[in-house]
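Consider this pair:
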Amino acid sequence: MKKRNIFLIAFFLLFSGLIFSLLFARYQSDKESENKVRLKEVFEKEITAALDLKYVSYNPLYAHSSYVRIIKDTIMGFNNGFNDYNAGFFFQSLKPLKTATLVQVTFQEHDPYPSDNYIGYYNNGCMYFGAYGGSRMERVCIDGTTRDYFSKYENTMFYANKVLLYKDKAAITSMNGIYIFDIKKEKLLWSERYGNELFDGFSVLIDNKFYYVSIRGTFVCMNLDTLKKEWETPLKIKMDYPYSEIYQELQSIYHSDNIIAIYGLDKLLLINSKTGKIIWNFPWNIKPSVDQPTVKIIDKLIYFSNKGELYCIDYTSNNLIWKFKDAIFKGIYKNFVIAMSKNSDFYLIINKDTGKLKTKIITPKNGYPIVLVDSYVIIDNRTIYK
């Protein structure tokens, strides 16, 4: 009898201990979740106060969309269907603010994903982009209608990475060449092919000028009205990215007024967009897939980071205006530089004119990204401010 009592007592203690452990673990988990929510609330409150931001919209759709852009005060993208959301394209007017519209479409025999995070154009309720892994331009409209363009050139053009539209023309940067089409006639007007070599030729459109990097390592200015090259400048920078490192493509060319910034692995260049002349350079050594440099040009000043230091330089005189240590440049909003500490523990809000730190804000665990899109700020991929 005593042995049985001892066994029952031991079993009770063991069972009680197990229950206590489970309840304590649950308590710890709930406490940790509460702390995360609290830290995020504090973080968002501090960021919005530091940048004087006003709430615009909240939607979990943004968080599960790999291809978000804001064009003409309309946010759009492709939702990947996570967390019980149906996969599809979405549109939402932010000014005036309207309810988001989710458009589910199916293209014949292929998936409707945009290429490399790039929706190239938006007009009259329709977005245009290169087909993911395909050789077409596609259009998706808010009313659910869709259209493929240039399908008959599938065996000519390989992987339509980036689509830029000007009037009735589409300039497409692909992995085997640059192609310019008449949109209405779906006719190829001009091309420069790369042969058997794959190359992610970076490109940008400014007014009627289409600028791109050729496989020869030159930077080319093409007039889309005349389809004539206006100039071609040797870059003399290392740009032979491995295929796995090409996806920084959207961040490789920046422009402001008549100045274009373009970088390679070993050098950052500024080029006069009218003449093609290289007017400034900064030597560096980067890995695009890791460093993902961001550059901003405002008047005669250029902002960027290199080796964990944030620079503000007057490129006309090459004078250093200010430098901030242990900071990775993320962008500029109003009068402030937004940066992150090298270990990603803090967001830094810095006066863009003086380089003085305004505030340092702790970043919650698991990250809490701030993305500058057009004149808007998206926090945690869910909430839009301005």
User: Anything to note?
Assistant: Residues 29-35, 242-251 have pLDDT under 50 and may be disordered. Helices lie at 2-51, 60-63, 288-291. The chain has three helices and 32 strands.
